[in-house]
Design a protein that fits this description.
Radius of gyration: 73 Å
Mean pLDDT: 82
Low-confidence stretches: 1-99
Shape: flat
Distance between the termini: 189 Å
Strand order of the largest sheet: 16-22-21-18-19
Strand content: over 45%
Structural class: mainly beta
Number of strands: 64
Length: 665
């Protein structure tokens, strides 16, 4: 079952399965002409190599030998020099690989995060196969003999090597693996703090990138943060090599002591009060002034002035809380009164003490006259006496603690103000003119109104009331001493009737001389007509009247009520009848008879007469005059002529007439 003999490259000799070879048939080729190659085989003739992976021995032979036998020693060839017997002559030899050399190439030095497993496959470099074969043998620094080895080392630097051998050929490589320490970050145990305190959270110095995730959802990039907020804090860190670590910590608050310094209080000057502190296990009062012990819950305080004390307490966890109490200390009672108070007769006046000092929450003010009779209480106080005279008024100020404060004020009564005035007349028909006159004097300021919204700084001499009604003119004054007075009058203005009427037709011409009258009257009890031609009529609001002839008549309507009378008049015009007469012939000739062609008219205010010949040519035109039968200064011949008359009557209405006129000579 041995494989057939194979020839070595560059050789013509054959090898045999017994491990020996007749050297007389071997000839060297190549650079070393005397180098020969010997194939190592086992007793079955197998070389232990694949195809071109051949283990051989290089023998350096002297040129003088041409025939010799080579005998391979037991145990095969190694990397060390061995002695071969060639006819009992010593020769040096070394094992080499002709077409195969195993390659040991580990990854470069590396750093690994804690807990990371390093796996090395000696058959691969950067994911690509190395120069190895299944017959290669592996030896690691850990003692492992497999191609693939997993490393989990303690933190620190570790040297790793591997040796790969095949036949007599060996390759080795070394690398350094650094395994980092156990943790990149350690926030420590959860913390409890006082609510007002801040705590430092430090992610340490083993990382270079820090991301904090705060309870409210915010993020912060920092190695350390200060915080007061309760809640869960999470940090993610990464070092320069990309290692990542996470840690969390919970911050919670200790309860605060429920500090109470007691209620605010008021005391009299020199009085002692016991403060009512509670809520803690230690107590400190600030300021300690006027306290018998500033480090107990209930010290005694005797402050000379109002003061605010602050109480600081702490609980078992050392958390502090504060509260304050205000102690109002009433000073000696004091008040300021004006030396004199000037008042006006009949006025209410104000009694007031200012700059009051003492217990402002418990004052009582009592005002008395010189006989001790209580006039009024309170501050300010208002006093009214109809017939007051000048006098002294005393004040007694008390607060229930200090001695009463007593002072007095002199009341001086000023002369009275007088705003009286007269109005004449006080009643009449609209429009009514009223005259005013003051009967008082001595004012510093005055204002007068007639009762219709208008004002002046003094009484006006007169005012006309044009609308019916009741008016109250008013006069108000202030004297130099500040006394005031006012007075008013009542003015009654009666409605004056209004009278008006319409008349139709107007104007009119005879024979239409009957006129219809319609009265338009207000505020009247009775009316009367005067038609202007001597005729009158009473009581009828609608009436007719016929005038006897042309003319202009003044008609008057009188309206009357219980107080007032009103009249209204207008002119009624009766015009003559409009008449225009034109002759049909005339005879100009200076004989004094029918010399001109002249219109005869009544109720015509103006006319224009134009003459045309039979060919329609205008030969003459005149204004308010007749035609004398000439044209251009020369007498026209006999014949028929056309005329056109434009007339305007006494109401400015136009009238037109045309016809023929014959000139006769």
């Amino acid at each position: 079952g041995a494989p057939p003999p194979r020839k070595l490259p560059g050789q013509s000799s054959d090898y045999t399965p017994n491990g020996t070879l007749s050297a007389g048939n071997i000839r060297g080729t190549g650079i070393n002409a005397y180098a020969s190659y010997l194939l190592k085989t086992d007793s079955l003739g197998s070389s232990g190599c694949f195809e071109k992976d051949l283990d051989v021995t290089v023998l350096n032979l002297e040129p003088k030998f041409s025939n010799y036998d080579l005998i391979i020693q037991e145990g095969g060839l190694t990397e060390q020099d061995v002695m071969l017997t060639v006819r009992n002559l010593p020769f040096s030899q070394k094992t080499i690989c002709t077409n195969f050399q195993p390659t040991a190439q580990l990854p470069g030095d590396t750093t690994l995060c804690f807990g990371t497993k390093l796996t090395i496959d000696a058959r691969l470099v950067n994911g690509l196969p190395t120069n190895t074969s299944p017959q290669c043998r592996f030896l690691w620094s850990t003692g492992d003999t497999t191609p693939v080895v997993n490393f989990s080392k303690a933190p620190g630097m570790h040297k790793i090597w591997v040796q790969i051998s095949k036949g007599g050929c060996v390759s080795s490589d070394t690398m350094q693996a650094t395994f980092l320490q156990n943790f990149l970050v350690d926030l420590g145990p959860d913390k409890e703090i006082c609510p007002y305190d801040s705590t430092l959270l430090n992610a340490g110095t083993h990382a270079v990138n820090f991301n904090w995730y705060l309870p409210g959802g915010d993020t912060v990039k920092a190695q350390q943060i200060f915080t007061q907020q309760e809640g869960q804090y999470r940090v993610r860190v990464a070092d320069a090599g990309g290692c990542v670590d996470l840690d969390t910590i919970h911050i919670s608050h200790y309860p605060l002591p429920k500090t109470s310094a007691g209620p605010d209080s008021a005391i009299c000057f020199g009085q002692t009060i016991t403060l009512q502190g509670e809520g803690g296990i230690t107590y400190t009062w600030q300021p300690p002034d006027h306290l018998d012990n500033a480090f107990v819950a209930n010290p005694n305080a005797t402050p000379p002035d109002s003061i605010r004390y602050w109480l600081i307490t702490s609980n078992q966890q050392g958390c502090r809380d504060t509260d304050d109490v205000f102690i109002a200390v009433s000073p000696p009672l004091f008040a300021t009164l004006p030396g004199q108070l000037f008042v006006c007769p009949g006025d209410s006046f104000r009694l007031e003490a200012t700059d009051v000092k003492g217990d402002t929450g418990h004052y009582t003010f009592t005002w008395t006259d010189s006989a001790g009779t209580v006039l009024v209480t309170g501050n300010p106080a208002f006093l009214h006496q109809e017939n007051i005279t000048s006098k002294m008024v005393n004040l007694k100020l008390e607060d229930g603690c200090s001695n009463a404060f007593i002072d007095s004020i002199e009341i001086i009564v000023n002369p009275a103000a007088d705003a009286a005035f007269t109005a004449t007349p006080t009643e009449g028909c609209a429009p009514l003119t009223v005259a005013f006159q003051s009967t008082g004097s001595g004012w510093e300021w005055a204002q007068f109104t007639a009762g219709e919204g208008d004002t002046s700084e003094t009484i006006i001499p007169q005012h006309t009331y044009r609308q019916p009604g009741i008016y109250h003119p008013y006069f108000s004054i202030i004297t130099k001493a500040g006394c005031t007075d006012s007075s008013s009058q009542t003015i009654i203005v009666h409605a004056t009737p209004t009278a008006n009427f319409t008349a139709a037709p107007q104007p009119t011409r005879i024979p239409n001389t009957t006129i219809t009258f319609s009265a338009n009257v207000t505020d009247a009890d009775f009316i009367e007509w005067d038609f202007g031609d001597g005729a009158t009529e009473a009581g009828n609001y609608e009436t007719i009247h016929t005038y006897p002839d042309t003319g202009r008549y003044t008609v008057m309507l009188t309206a009357t009520n219980a107080h007032c009378t009103s009249t209204y008049s207008r002119t009624i015009i009766i015009r003559d009848l409009i008449r225009i007469h034109l002759p049909n012939a005339f005879s100009p000739g200076n004989d004094g008879l029918n010399e001109t062609f002249t219109p005869v008219t009544t109720a015509i205010a103006h006319y224009q007469l134009t003459i045309y010949n039979r060919w329609g040519e205008q030969i003459w035109k005149g204004e308010n005059e007749g035609w004398n039968g000439t044209s251009g200064g020369a007498m026209v011949p006999e014949g028929v002529y056309l005329y056109l008359l434009k007339a305007t009557d006494d109401t400015s209405a136009p009238h037109f007439f045309k016809g023929n006129v014959t000139v006769v000579k």
